[in-house]
Design goal:
nine-stranded antiparallel β-sheet; 832 residues; six-stranded mixed β-sheet; PNGase; 20 helices; signal; Glutathione S-transferase Yfyf (Class Pi), Chain A, domain 2; binds 2-acetamido-2-deoxy-beta-D-glucopyranose; Beta-galactosidase, Chain A, domain 5
Length: 832
Amino acid sequence: MILRFQFLSAFLLLFISSFVSQASAQDTPEARTEPWIQDPASYVNAFIGTVNVGHVFPGATLPHGMIKAGLDTDSPGNHAGYDGDPQYNATGFSQLHDTGTGGSIPLSNFKLWAYASCTSFEKCPSGIVQRKLKRKTRDDGSPDDYASPGYFSTNLTNDIRVELTATRRTALHRYTFPAGTAHPRILVDIANDGQRSATYPQVLIDQVGLESEGGGYQSGRVRGGAEFAASFGPGRYKAYVCVTFKGEGYELGKPTEYGAYSNNYPVRGARNGEQVYLSSGSEHGALLEFIPSPSSAVTSILARVGVSFISTNQACSTAEEEIQDYDFERVKSEARAQWNDVLGRVKVRFGDSAKRTTETERELVEHFYSSLYRTHIAPADYTGENPHWNSTEPYYDSLYCNWDTYRTLYPLMAMHDPVTFSKIIRGMIDIQKHEGWLPECRGATVKHYMQGGSNADPILADFLVKYPPSSSSFSSLGVSPSDLYAALLRDAEDQPPNWNLQGREVDVWKELGYIAQSFASVGGANTKWVSRTLEYAFDDFAIAQVAKVLGKTEDAEKYMKRAQNFLNVWNPDVTVPGGPDFVKGMMQTHAFFTSLKPRFANGTWNHTDPRHCSIHDPEKATCFLNAARRDGFYEASPIVYSQYVPQDSAKLIELQGGAEAFINRLDWIFENLYFDVTNEPSHQMPFMHHYANRPGLSTSRSRKVLEEHFDLTKDGLPGNDDSGAMGSYAAFSLLGMYPLPATRQLLISSSYFPVVEFVNPVYNTTTTFKTTGSGIFVKGVTIDGEPWRSTCFIEWAVFEKGSVVELELSEDESLGCGEGGLPPSISTGGYA
Ligand SMILES: *[C@@H]1O[C@H](CO)[C@@H](O)[C@H](O)[C@H]1NC(C)=O
Ligand SMILES: *[C@@H]1O[C@H](CO)[C@@H](O)[C@H](O)[C@H]1NC(C)=O
Ligand SMILES: *[C@@H]1O[C@H](CO)[C@@H](O)[C@H](O)[C@H]1NC(C)=O
Ligand SMILES: *[C@@H]1O[C@H](CO)[C@@H](O)[C@H](O)[C@H]1NC(C)=O
Ligand SMILES: *[C@@H]1O[C@H](CO)[C@@H](O)[C@H](O)[C@H]1NC(C)=O
Ligand SMILES: *[C@@H]1O[C@H](CO)[C@@H](O)[C@H](O)[C@H]1NC(C)=O
């Protein structure tokens, strides 16, 4: 709480200091020191959102790497393994994770653990409960953990220091034992995945001490695997591991003792050569003991950990390919270089004054790069690890879930990382080709539950409208427009057997133009018919946008029409109990009915209290997938969903009584805490004043949301990071922008940074946003020196061209968007 307050006041200070620095900028042309431009990785605070419910993964990974090596804890919130609260015990260092997710604990597979002082091999506590212990803490009480992009380290209370780094499919661990350790030992845990869901665990200890074939695996090699439960879906997956060891600065030689363990009982191997253990126990793995370094007081042992979703042999061969030399510092610095490459494509600057960076500015930079960093952890590049079919296309997993990420994460990626974006798109299309429908939520190679519609649709559309086939670099990206379009049409036209996992309930959608309560036959506890109606409408809008780009005029018309089906669930008569008169009209459920015409033969709307799922819900209901009360809305109230029509905000204004009533309604929503920053359907709301010609209100509101709900502490996120969705939301808020997915338009406001540069490696352009004047409200915009008609939105063309967009600022909150400057909506002429 105190930290949040400090951060808030830091922002206020910035406004003052930025006015001062603006004034002196003209006099001092000398470039100031902005060290993060060279090394943005050093401004990443990986621990934001690692306590409470952020579930952020702070360990070692490449951008979108499959390996996410990290510390696991016994925290109840260990969805990403880690918990930044030192009261929780460390339980191991596992290789795969997700970030910011809910559901059950995902992917905490194959934990390694080291011992400095067991009294004997058999007495080493191998069980996860018996072995766990706390991390050391610093003087301020924080755990002695450190993280930077591509690297993680911690000191445990048994005096062992653990360091982790990663390539795409291989982790490298370094265990440094306390001085005088006579029997350094390392355990490889095959079964504990975070959920204890393993079946058929298998562990092999190979070639110990065999001198043939070039020495075999002199220092032992542990291979293993098992079948595990998915996190947010009904499926199970198989994963395999291959671990080899090397002494740092000395010849490790063969293990002095080794064997497998079941539960808390290690059993020493009886013979040389290969051992195979099979077990149905919930705790299973291998334990090896090595000689300490003969020459130095401290012993460091490297463990190279390959992981595969195909086979143990593949885990071994990729590990050998990716990290032949066991050179920890090399792997670590190459990982950091990859991070600096991607983070460095968005450069934030404070202008040209020679003034030193203030603490407030430093914090803003830290906030920005930490947020941007979190948008590049998931999805993960599992290319070569898809167990379901062979393909030469990329395979990305940890799409957890598209519902969370389509709004802001992919539009941000489109601006600076189009190559990764194109590979994710190709992977999605390949999934559609083999499974029939585009993926929605996916983790550990299996389908998870739907949250909304088929939300790959707006992601594919966002890519294609920004990188159309007519653009010069399109062919280099390897995306087939016809395959992309076919994949979209499948979602739009063919109902899958289980639309709760992929695709949509389109038969009803096509027949009625909305999802009626009675038609939900599958779909888990909460079948979310109203929110799905709104999502399906947006999905069809996305498809219409693609149809336009591809010159399919009839389809474009058809889907643009379907995009207006949100009107079918608008009930103009509903008000909020105890609420003001001007908040009238809500998205609502249609009750059971049988005949199509007239549409509501017996005139029934079913009523959902608009406060349902909000903090004011008298029934205290939740709208999660397993919600007990089923009222048709997912993870947000009818009040929130009644503002959720990104494709036609102008129509919402009309339905809600015009601009003034709309603004009053938004104010009422914020003031009464119906805006819910923890879930994405609310995210556009601060910027919706743009559509009512009051962009200044958006600026104020969006800054307030950022400053109240996000900060740099471990508790700095309002909820789950949702695979980086919250990170992208915070990044856009800092940049003073909000994207309209599947369009070529971007809502603009003022950034906290006077200069922002986007480097786009596909267009080979740098697009610069600059502010002049004082204040935070946009008064005028020029693009490449020419006046631009709107202060509320800009066109994607500025990124294609590498334009300079100059925003003239003012202290006047009441300014409008300019003549003809309102952002587009379907009902006011549509999208260019
Ligand atoms: C950490 O482990 C110790 C020893 O098993 C246990 O007493 C303690 O409760 C654990 N801490 C938490 C927060 O569970
Ligand atoms: C752990 O201990 C080492 C050696 O004492 C120290 O250099 C390091 O900063 C400590 N913290 C972490 C997180 O590694
Ligand atoms: C992929 O190809 C390999 C090599 O031909 C084969 O062994 C494997 O079974 C194939 N995998 C699938 C899922 O078809
Ligand atoms: C209205 O919704 C409630 C709760 O979901 C349900 O029990 C009821 O059957 C519905 N009524 C009609 C007429 O559809
Ligand atoms: C509406 O009509 C349907 C079909 O005739 C019927 O099942 C349902 O009970 C009717 N609802 C009401 C409230 O009359
Ligand atoms: C990118 O642009 C720069 C400067 O405009 C130019 O020097 C370079 O050759 C271009 N690179 C490519 C790959 O087109």
